[in-house]
Write a structure and sequence with these properties.
Elements: H1 3-13, E1 18-22, H2 29-34, E2 43-45, H3 50-63, E3 68-72, H4 81-88, E4 93-97
Parallel strand pairs: 1-2, 1-3, 3-4
Helix pairs in contact: 3-4
């Protein structure tokens, strides 16, 4: 089980709303389901570039509706002050996985 699927499965098992921002484009629903991720309830975004991914993450953080955001394939410098400031104003757990 990868770090990504472990984070997502654990959050869902606690009844939390989880979102995957998959910048690598390597998400495999079958593998995630085998690792206890409820794929039907998982929010998944596959943005075309880091700039778009940042906008998605900030919008999700500001919504306050997500408990866990996992950014897979986050490039160096992705986690700037704007993202951490938005994260600090919510209960959302943000995980950046290079």
């Amino acid at each position: 089980m990868s770090a990504v699927t472990r984070c997502l499965a654990t959050a869902q098992q606690r009844g939390e709303v989880a979102c995957l921002v998959n910048m690598r484009g390597t998400f495999r629903a079958e593998e995630a389901a085998a690792a206890a991720v409820n794929v039907a309830d998982l929010m998944i975004s596959q943005p075309p570039d880091a700039g778009y991914a940042r906008k998605i993450v900030i919008a999700l953080l500001n919504s306050g509706a997500i408990d866990l955001i996992v950014v897979e394939g986050a490039p160096e410098g992705f986690d700037d002050d704007e993202i951490w400031l938005a994260a600090s104003r919510t209960k959302t757990d943000l995980r950046l996985i290079p």
